[in-house]
Every structure is written in C-alpha cells, then in structure tokens.
Input
Amino acid sequence: TQKKAIPHLITLADLSQSQIYNLLRSAIQHKYNAKYAGKGSGEPLKGKTLALTFSKRSTRTRVATESATAYLGGTPMFLGSQDIQLGVNESLLDTAKVISSMADGIMARVGPHSDIEVLAKYSSVPIINALSDKYHPTQILADLMTMHEVFGPHSDTDSEYISHLHHPKDFLPGLKVAWIGDGNNMLHSMLVTFPKLGIHFSAATPKNYQPDADVVEIAKKEAKNSGSELSFTTAPKEAVKDADIIVTDTWISMGQESEKLQRLKDFAGFQVTMSLAEQGGAKPDWKFMHCLPRKSEEVDDEVFYSPRSVVFEEAENRKWTILAVIDALLVKKSFD
Ligand code: CP
Ligand code: NVA
Output
C-alpha cells in the first residue's frame, strides 16, 4: 500500500485557485471569529507542537505563527540557528527526521530554497515555508487577504467586519498590481499566484535584477489560462499605469548585505513616491503594500505613512492567514 503524501506549503505554485481561495476564506472566518465575535478556536491543536526552525531573523512571521498556534491550543517551539544544529554541525536530512519524529509540524525559514525541499522530502510531518530565497508563500496570502479587505465590501467600524460574508473571488480578479523593485522571493511569489487568480500584474525591476526564468514561465502560463495581463519592464513609471496597488520590498534581502552599496546604485529611480504614481498614471485610489521590514530608500515616508498605505493591516493579516495554513495542514490535513 502506498503511503498518503503529507501536504506541505512550499510555494503557492503548488496550489490550485480554489485551494488558495479556501485558505483566504478560512483566514477571513478565523479573523472574524477571534477578533470580532470573541470566539475561541475549540483548541484543535491541544497537546500538539509546531516547531519553528528559523535560520534568519523574523518579527511578523514568528509572532504570527506563535500567536496563531497558541490560539489553536497548540504549543509553538521556536528553534533559532543559535539554539539548535540547523544545517550546521548536522545535516538537514537528519534534522528533518529528528524534529518531525517529535513535533506535529515544522514552519521553516531557510536560506537556499533547496533547503526547504530537503526538509519536505525527509520530514514525516507537514512543512510550511516561512521564507526561502526563492519564495515567501505565507506573505502572499496576507497580501491577498488585505487586497480583499481594501477593495471588497467593507465597513468602517471594526464591529461590522463583514467581508467574511463575501467571496474573494468576486473582488480579486481584475485588480492590477504593480511591483517596483528587486527580482526576489516576494516578486517570485506574486508571479506564481496573482496571474493564476486573474489579477493583472506588471513588474518593474532594474536591469540585472530580473526574476528567475522558470518563475516567469509559470506566470506566463497562468496568465494565459486566466486571461490576466502580465508585463515586465525596467521602467517603474510604465509599470504603475492603471495600478490599483503598488508594492515593493527591500532592495537588500537577508543574506545580501554585502551587495548593499552596489544595489543602492543599481536601484536608483526605483523609490516609490507620490510623484512616481502620479506621473505613471496609477488609478486615483491606488494603495501601497510592503511585506516589511521596510527601509526608506525603496519607499519614502510620504507614501509609507499615508492613508494609501495598508502595510500594517497587511502585517496583521499574516496572523490570520498563517492560522488558516496551520489549520489546513495540521487539523484538516488538506487544502481542499
Ligand atoms: N514580512 C515578513 O516576513 O516579516 P518578518 O521577516 O519580520 O517575518
Ligand atoms: N525579500 C525579503 C523579504 C523579507 C520578509 C528577504 O528575503 O529578506
């Protein structure tokens, strides 16, 4: 008899449109229950442990995961690279076997993407990618949830958080997102997700900072299927034309610190500002997103702290979307 495959979340490229929508619906419902209806979760993870093996720093992903696990009745166990043998002094293969023999799930932040694939191959429990140098899938779920809240039906008062009654599929397709920045893990994650959902997407990256070719191929295929418009440019003004959302990220990702000076030069002209949006012709009510942490070189204070900026809503939604992922993988044991 064949063993049933363990479900993991390595990249949203592996999930169907309806599986992504299921996660968003679940996140919206959990947020409503916990935050507005004051309901507990029923503690389905009582007695279970989620290990967080993080080889890089984290504020949002760590706090979101630990607080979501606690809400579900489980125990989060944070294991930083200073604390355990994480690819240093012991192979990842052995680490995966050992941790998965005792914990019920592993949320892993890694350097090279191949590390998360090794963990998924040898772990006997679900693996969630908490960021690799190629993909950051849980961040994109929070971005989609925030886009649904901002562009879907909503109320101005917290107690009337009603968007849980509506389906994100009615509001997300047709929006246009413009990426202004590096061809990094965030851009890759958007490329494998937004075109699949019928969201129009344009990306401006400097020369020599383009996204990986295999990821662009996936995006093109998905765009063809869904009818979403997809474009690439090196001119930020071109990309923001008709954008509902302008999004960027740091120019210097974790692990690239030694390239800082060169990158600051190469990204000249890529700062998100009000005048870039105006001159490029973004939609009148465009909004700004950023996964954080943020530096002022990629977006100035005027945009970052303006009412257009939904970065702190986006950060909070990390909790509700990660909660939905944990619920799917550790409780329901399926994305369907
Ligand atoms: N956006 C994000 O992943 O933030 P952290 O690195 O703080 O977890
Ligand atoms: N691109 C950034 C994202 C941080 C959440 C990095 O990898 O450091």
Q: What stands out?
A: DSSP finds twelve helices and nine strands in the chain.
